Amino acid sequence: MEAARTEAIPESAMQVYNTRWQLWQYVGSLELAAGQYNKVIQSVLDIENPLIQSQLRDIDYQLKKAEEGLSWNCQGIWQYIQELRDSVCDLELRLQTAKDNVEEIQTCIKSWASPMFDRKDGKKDTLLNLEDRSERLDWFYSMIRLCGEKIHFLIKRNLELFRADPSSDEWKAYVEYVDDMVINGFYNCIECSLKFFLDNTDEKNVPVPLFEAKLDLKVPDMVFIPSLEFGERDSLFELVESFINSVFRVSSLVPRLAQHCPHPHYQADMEDMADLADMRHLLMDRVKSVMATCCGFRNSLERYRYLYIDDRNEVLRYFLRYGHILTCHEMEVQADNGILERPPTLHDFKQQVDRYEKIYEELQSLEPVNVFHCWMRVDGRGMKVALLNIVKKLSFMFKQHLIDHVINSLSDLENFIIMAETGLSQQVDKGDYNTLVGVIGHLQAVKERQHSADMMFEPLQQTIALLKDYEQEVPNVVHKQLEELPEKWTNVKKNAMLVKQQVAPLQAIEVANLRRKCASFEVTQHTFKEHFRNNAPFRFDSNNPHQMLDSFHGQIQEQEAVMTSLVESAVLFEVTVSEYKQLQQCRREIGLLKALWDMITVVESCMASWKMTPWREINVEDMELQCKCFSKDIRGLDKEVRGWEAFTGLDSSVKNLLISLRVVAELQNPAIRPRHWHQLMAATGVRFTMDQETTLAVLLELNLHCFEEEVRGIVDKAVKEMGMEKVLSELNSTWTGRAETSNPVFCHTV
Question: Exposed site from 75, 84, 388, 595, fewest CB < 10 Å?
Fold first, then answer.
């Protein structure tokens, strides 16, 4: 049977059967190569295809050789199959590795799509976390940089896997393909952070605030921290803008993959994105809007500005002076025309304190924390506490003034009673003037104080009752004084009446003596007045006027001391005395004389310096201007001095000097010759030597102000003579020239 079956199998079949394992190996390798090839063809992307196109052509060329000229029995077929399989598998492996690298790049990029900032502790009911802002940015930036380094490494690896030329267009297109992925990744990253801010500043969707600003009182302004004023440093606007800049900055942390692009990184691309720009502008518009709203809220509190702007001491001073706190309009009127002064009553104090109490209640009702646009919280607790403290201090200032008024009034009265009792208890003997004066002084003080002291106790009790309504207690000693002082004050008044009766005879004697002294002083002052008028420096030629004024000043002071003593005694003893107008007139006139002689001294010292000036160097215009100023000052003196000889002498000196200066100006004319000076000497009757050393003093000795017309005539004559000399000189020159021209030989001989 076996033999029969063996004989039935053809030899070719037996050969195939004997090589079946080798054929299976061939087929398996070819099927593997075909599968890998098809996988490459099916999975390759359009952007990848140009990079492996040459490698696919090489494989297709090898396949074509098998299709056209190779069989299973060809020599070296197995080596061919192995090389073909290895080429296809290597290509597929490199392509798949490149794809895996791209997927890894995409995974890195996707990790960027998370907000860079978050609320505190990641909770939805907290504010934006600003405390770890720098640490969070450093971590996020570090992650972006590491991803960028990894992406660049993987791109470099793909360059090796594709065996591409980095300068080829195909590789540049592939890099741009991956570059677009990075751009999209940065877009998503920035969009995610911007969306976080937009979602949390949307009035329709935000349940709790995202930002907070504190409103504090920093006199003279209420300020936000951070500032909500446009244009200021460290404001909310700058804060949010810095957040946005930090978000956009991430795109600058990764160097550009496509190095042939003009930008070194991706930030310019992100800033050019219209969607991102719109989101940015929308966010900043919301910030501007909420800042304006918050500033409007702060401005609504400006009605309390006067509480912390006005000086408390000034407020109380004006209140005590005018009975109320002045408004701005009243302050202007007070500065210009003055306001009628009216000391405040107890009712005025009550109204003012009640006003502050009402303001305090208003401030208490203010919300300490306010939320605007649902996402901006303003913490005004610091401002509220500061305003409440200020109002309390203002209210307490008025209450304390009332307390001090009660304490001081009672203490002052108590001290006065003690002093009055001591003074009135002195024994006055006949002839003891000093003790009598002291006792009468105390009697006078009791009389002057009687009305105010009689009327003070009831208002003080009302004041204490008002303070009690405001829960302000006065010291116990005040209550004790209110019980004891009325009786003590009554006893002092009774004692004063008794003492007044006792000293009445002695007082009458002193009154008679005082009247005699006053009559004697009246005669003395008339005598002094005559002496003053006859010997004071009223004349312009007075010698040592300032020494005379000092002497008379001392004498007047002595007379005034006597007058003051008499007036004080007259007031004490209730005696009517004269006003002593003669002495007062002397005091006035010595002041006027002092001003007049000061002016005379200034003018004379200035004239003395001018007189030393050489006459050719005299600046008539400057001197004349100064003289006019002197004349103006002289006219500004009191009208009473114009009748005094010293004044008329000063006025005449200045006027004469003005005339003399005009004459000197005439004499400075270049037409003046020596013969004209002789004519001037003949006219004035004074002889002098005229040269370069001649000074203004020499010319003033000529009394030029008396010869103004004569000098003007001499100068006019000199000018005319100078004109004639000029004409004669020109004629002489003309005739000399003509003579030389008509007879040159004669001229030469001559």
Answer: 75
For residue 226, whether the previous peptide bond is cis, meaning omega lies within 30 degrees of 0, is yes
* Ranges of the chain whose pLDDT falls below 50: 1-4, 18, 686, 688, 743-750
614: helix, strand or coil? strand
Query: Which of 264, 260, 93, 251 lies closest to 184 in space, CA to CA?
Result: 251
Instruction: Give the distance from CA 538 to its chain's centroid.
Output: 58
Distance of CA 627 to the CA centre of its chain: 48
- Alpha-carbon distance 75 to 334, whole Å? 127
Burial (0-12, 13-18, 19+ Cβ within 10 Å), 300 = exposed
What is the four-CA torsion angle of 10, 12, 18, 20, rounded to 10 degrees? -120
Per residue in 524-583, pLDDT (tens digit) is 888 888 888 888 888 888 888 888 888 888 888 888 888 887 777 777 666 676 677 887
Q: Which three-class secondary structure state does DSSP give residue 235?
A: strand
The structure's pTM equals 0.62
- Give one word for 669, left, alpha or beta, with left for phi > 0 and alpha for psi -120 to 50: beta
For the chain, give every domain's residue range: 12-110, 120-302, 324-370+386-502, 598-725
Provide the 10 A C-beta neighbour count for residue 211. 20
Amino acid (1-letter code) at residue 479: H
Q: What is the DSSP letter of 311?
A: -
Please report where in the chains the tokens 């001391």 appear, as a residue: 561
Query: What would the pLDDT profile of 673-693 be if each residue is shown by its tens digit?
Result: 565 565 656 565 545 455 565
Asked if the bond preceding 670 is cis, omega within 30° of 0, the reply is no
Q: What is the pLDDT of residues 601-627, one digit of tens each?
A: 888 788 777 777 776 667 777 777 878
Helix (H) or strand (E) holding 94: helix 77-110
Give the strands of the sheet with 369-372, arranged side by side.
221-225, 211-218, 376-379, 369-372
Helix (H, G, I), strand (E, B) or coil at 721: helix
CB 535 within 8 A of CB 548: yes
Burial (Cβ within 10 Å: 0-12, 13-18, ≥19) of residue 63: middle
> HSE-up of 124 (CA within 13 Å, CB side)?
4
Compute the distance between CA of residue 94 and CA of residue 89 in angstroms, rounded to an integer.
Answer: 8
Tokens of 159: 């360059």
Q: Tell me the DSSP string of 406-448.
A: HHHHHHHHHHHHHHHHHHHTS---TT-HHHHHHHHHHHHHHHH
Both structure tokens of 701 = 């000795």
Q: Are 477 and 483 in contact (CB under 8 A)?
A: no
Q: Are 40 and 87 in contact, with CB atoms under 8 Å apart?
A: no
Q: What is the pLDDT of residues 646-674, one digit of tens each?
A: 888 877 777 777 766 666 666 655 555 56
What pLDDT is recorded for position 60? 72
Q: Which helix (H) or strand (E) holds 115?
A: none
What is the residue type of 521? F
Residue 224's beta-bridge partner residues?
215
Which pLDDT belongs to residue 405?
A: 92
Rounded to an integer, what distance in angstroms lies between the CA atom of residue 696 and that of residue 694? 7
SS3 224: strand
DSSP 475: P
- Tokens 């029969």 sit on residue: 4
The closest alpha carbon to 177, from 107, 99, 110, belongs to 99
The 10 Å Cβ neighbour count of residue 689 is 8
Q: Which of 184, 191, 183 is nearest to 116 (CA)?
A: 191
Among all chains, which residue has been given the structure tokens 């008025």? Answer: 398
Q: Could you say which DSSP state residue 251 is in?
A: G
